[in-house]
Amino acid sequence: MHIRPVATAIFVFLVCIVAACGADEKPAPAAPAPEPAIVSDSAPDPSTTPADAATPATPDSLPKGLVLALAQFVKKEGAPVPGPARLEFVYRKDGKWQTSFVEDDQSNVFHKAFYYEGPVGPRLMTLAGTAATVKTWEATDAGLEPTTEWEQDFGGKWSRMRDAEVADLYGDGEATVVVATHDQGVVVVLRPKAEGGFDVVQLDEKPDTFVHEIEIGDLDADGILEVYATPSDPNRMDGTRQHGEVVRYVPKKGEGRVVVADLGDRHAKEILVDDVDGDGRDELYVSVEGHLEGKGANKRLVDPVEILRYDADTAADAGVVIGTLQDSLSRFLTAGDIDGDGKKELVVAAFSSGLWLFRPGEDPKGSWQRELIDKDSAGFEHASILSDLDGDGVDELYVASDRHKELRRYVWNGSRLVREVIYTRPDDRSVFTWNLMPVPVEIIP
Ligand SMILES: [Ca+2]
Ligand SMILES: [Ca+2]
Ligand SMILES: [Ca+2]
Ligand SMILES: [Ca+2]
Question: Could you list the pLDDT tens digit for every one of the 445 residues in the chain?
């Protein structure tokens, strides 16, 4: 692959700004990709307008929209600088996809925003970096009104709220929030109080440690939820190999950090806990980064991205490879039922090789079937989610293709996923879409 000057310029720009905006490592350049080895890697053109008879028509209005959590860069004296943390809402009303936004000057990145129903009613919850805040936002006639629920300077170089998941962690019926942070290894539980607000309970801390991702589930099927997290050293900008692992906490049992996946000198870029194979028990999926060697034009991929599966009894060094991608990174895994057959699939969003659909094989603890959904979809984070916004029982796929400044929707047409662009950014401002989540339209400003 020839690297065009414009691509190089964009890459250099990304490296320059990435440290400032809450990114935890530099984007790797596109690897010269040998052709992938297994199953159908030729995708039909997904950009076909979904006009086939089998493609469901999109209703004029939908009960749910999407919230995008963003870092943005604005021009100051001609140079790009981090702008205020930004949320964008995309929703369908009156036969059109519409947008609205909220900005927060207190921070320069929102890493995640999601719908949260606690004891005091429905809110939007946000996680921001520098300043590191967790806020709830109430829908009022005057717009979304924020309340700061937790704010902290962790005392290191960076202070960021990075990820959160919500579950009834203690079996008390409460929507408890687990939060991952940068850069002192702090993991906390936010326990909602009846009168509003949260008790902050710290699960862990470790000097000079980024905690990137949180997942919650019950792998051992004992009815008690476990918390999974991905701590790492602060990523180096020189691409040096670093140790990676996935750890587990069981707050209800008072059980602290246990390493469940030891990835040697490779990082976990994403984890997902879900019962994708449908046997009634959750499993842990880990997206392990690929490795590039060499410099400049000689740079080549020596280890592919691997998607590993862990069950409750899998040893930390014995994750099962369900699939590989000839790519350096994959930072999003999302599970759902894309074709309405009652079985879940896994979508893997890779850095430069596109969007991939994984289906469990006959033995879901072995190699899975893999299909290319769309080669022409990319972004540093490449945030993606399977969600049933139209409520017809089948999940649609929503993807932020930041390279194209587009938000895209993919719908199953009976034989494949068909792409539709539902939002194109109207300006050339650089953004990182860190996350997107479904939200009821009632909370959208
Ligand atoms: Ca359990
Ligand atoms: Ca399972
Ligand atoms: Ca399915
Ligand atoms: Ca649907």
Answer: 343 433 333 443 444 344 444 555 444 333 333 333 344 555 566 665 445 556 778 899 999 999 999 999 998 898 899 999 999 999 999 999 999 999 999 999 999 999 999 999 999 999 999 999 999 999 999 999 999 999 999 999 999 999 999 999 999 999 999 999 999 999 999 999 999 999 999 999 999 999 999 999 999 999 999 999 999 987 665 667 789 999 999 999 999 999 999 999 999 999 999 999 999 999 999 999 998 888 888 888 989 999 999 999 999 999 999 999 999 999 999 999 999 999 999 999 999 999 999 999 899 999 999 999 999 999 999 999 999 999 999 999 999 999 999 999 999 999 999 999 999 999 888 999 999 999 999 999 9
349 touches 377 (CB < 8 A):
yes
- The pTM (predicted TM-score) of the whole model is 0.90
C-alpha span between 211 and 156 (Å, rounded):
13
What ligand is nearest to the CA atom of residue 250?
1
- φ/ψ (deg, to 5) at 428: -95, 10
- For 15, phi and psi rounded to 5 degrees? -60, -40
Measured distance CA(417)–CA(413) in Å, rounded: 6
Ligand nearest to the CA of 340: 3
Pairing of strands 176-182, 160-167: antiparallel
> How many Å apart are CA 271 and CA 310, to the nearest integer?
11
Ligand nearest to the CA of 219: 1
396 Cα–ligand 4 center, Å: 5
Distance 346 CA to ligand 2 centre (A): 13
The ligand placed nearest to the CA atom of residue 281 is 2
Provide DSSP, 223-268: S--EEEEEEEPPPPTT------EEEEEEGGGTEEEEEEEE-TT--E
Q: Are 397 and 417 in contact (CB under 8 A)?
A: yes
Residue 93's DSSP bridge partners are 96
Ligand 4 midpoint to CA 271 (Å)? 24
Rounded distance from Cα 24 to ligand 3 centre (Å): 33
- Rg of the chain over Cα atoms, rounded to whole angstroms, equals 21
User: Which residues 6+ apart lie within 8 Å of 169 measured at CB?
Assistant: 176, 178, 189, 216, 225, 227, 251, 252
Residues sharing a CB contact under 8 Å with residue 36, sequence separation 6 or more, in sequence order: 324, 325, 326, 353, 370
CB 219 within 8 A of CB 284: yes
**Rounded CA separation 322/138 (Å):** 42
